[in-house]
Structure formats: C-alpha cells, structure tokens
Specification:
It is built from two helices and 16 strands. The protein has 253 residues and is of the alpha+beta class. The chain has a domain of 152 residues. A hairpin with a 2-residue loop joins strand 12 and strand 13.
Length: 253
C-alpha cells in the first residue's frame, strides 16, 4: 500500500512539473483599423526601425482616437494629454523570400501588453507599408480575410513571444504584416509621458520624458531551397557513367 502511495505521489509530482513547465500558446486576435477609432490615431513617437536575421520591422507609438486620456499639464504633447490607451504599432517592411517562421520576443512585456493583428478596412492600399490614420495596417489582409490560426503568442520569464509560422502560405511571405501591442485590456489608459506622475507608465521613458517603444528580438527560420543540377553537370554525368562502364568491361575481360 505504501509503495502504491509512493508511486502515486511521484506520478502526481511529475504531472505537476510537466504542467508547470508547459507554456500555453494563445491565438493572436485580429482587429481592423477602424477598431482604433473613426478619426486618425495620434502618432506620439515617430517611426523607429528594428532589424535582425534579414528582417526589418518599423514601429511607432500611437494613441487611438477612441482611447485618448485626460488632459495633463499645459504644454505636454500631444494637445495637453499625457495618457491614453496606448499601442505600439509594428509592420514588417523587409523579409527574405524563403521565410518560414518568424519569432519576435519583447522583453518584459508580458505583464502589461497583449498583441493584436491589424487588418485593413478601407485604408488606401495603393501606397503600401505606410501608416493608415496613424496606425500600421496589414497590406495584404482585409477585416474579412482569414489569417493562420497557428499564429500565436506565449509568455515566458516576463517576456511576450509572438510566433508567425508557415509564412510561405501568406502573400509575400508576410511582407506588410502589421500588429500592435496594446497596454492592458484594449483601451486601458497609461502614461506615455513622464510629466504624468498619476497614471501607470506605459513603458520606460527616454531622456526627453517620452515613452520608449518596445524593441523586438527578431529570430527567423527559413526553408531550404531545392538545388537543381546545373546543365553543365548533367552533360558531364553521361560521359562519366560511360567511362565507368568501359572500365568495368575491361576489368571483367
């Protein structure tokens, strides 16, 4: 009986350890540009660029039209506001043609941020890779398109990890894909300027007191292209086989 109890405890402990070590993947939700408000969002940072593994990602910090905060001290940007339902917007502007799986890790973002893929619902797509009313949008996907359900995010060690796999099945291998990291539940306000000492800071601040955009660590796996023999190689193959056959005949005789 004691032996059975012992092994039952061991089995239970192992199951607990396995569950504790399992990282649950969540599907990345999708929102259309209009979900961020009828009017253009306010770009509060300008555009930054991050690169790695042949991938280039542009980013900005924005306040959605429908999530502007209260009025802060006079003179603080923009329009006197110091808080809003902030989002960090990102868009892939360069990616290798044989891209397969793209992983973006945002250090320390798990506690306060959740990701959202932003689709197009009426923006001018004739000028690709541009801001649509202050918000990056996915150039190849409308609000009615279905994107891979396998695109997911996980959290580990306080980090937020986004995974976009099977990029070969997407137009241009994901070039133009846009998403945002939203502070808290969608529309939750936070302080994007150090002049606001009342609200929770959205992120860290730079020396000028402005919010710092979360930088992604970029990792890309690619597909291995199939190599086709050069015509010259095929031409040499025939005589080579013939020579081997002749040598074999002489050896037998």
């Amino acid at each position: 009986m004691r032996t059975q109890k012992f092994w039952a405890c061991v089995a239970g402990s192992c199951a607990f350890i396995l569950l504790a070590g399992t990282v649950r993947a969540n599907s990345i939700p999708t929102r259309s540009k209009s979900d961020f408000g009828a009017n253009p969002a306010t770009d509060i940072s300008g555009t930054s660029t991050f690169s790695g593994d042949g991938v280039t990602v542009q980013a900005n910090a924005f306040c959605p039209d429908n999530a502007l905060g209260d009025t802060g001290p006079t003179g603080t940007p923009p329009n006197g506001n110091t808080n809003c339902g902030l989002g960090f917007g990102y868009q892939i502007t360069n990616i290798p043609a044989n891209a397969d799986t793209l992983t973006l890790t945002f250090t320390g973002a798990a506690a306060n941020f959740t990701p959202t893929i932003i689709t197009n619902d009426g923006c001018d797509t004739t000028t690709p890779l541009t801001l649509c009313g202050g918000v990056f949008f996915t150039t190849f996907a409308s609000s009615t398109d279905t994107l891979p359900a396998t695109w997911s995010y996980t959290t580990s060690g306080g980090n937020l990890i986004l995974t976009f796999d099977n990029l070969q099945s997407i137009a241009n291998q994901g070039l133009g894909l846009a998403f945002s990291l939203n502070f808290g539940p969608f529309g939750t306000n936070c302080a994007y300027n150090s002049a606001d000492t009342t609200d929770t800071p959205c992120s860290s601040f730079d020396s000028a007191g402005n919010v710092v955009i979360l930088a992604p660590q970029i990792a890309l796996t690619t597909t291995s292209p199939m190599t086709t023999p050069e015509p010259e190689t095929l031409l040499l193959l025939g005589p080579g086989l013939g020579l081997l056959g002749l040598m074999k005949r002489r050896y037998i005789s």
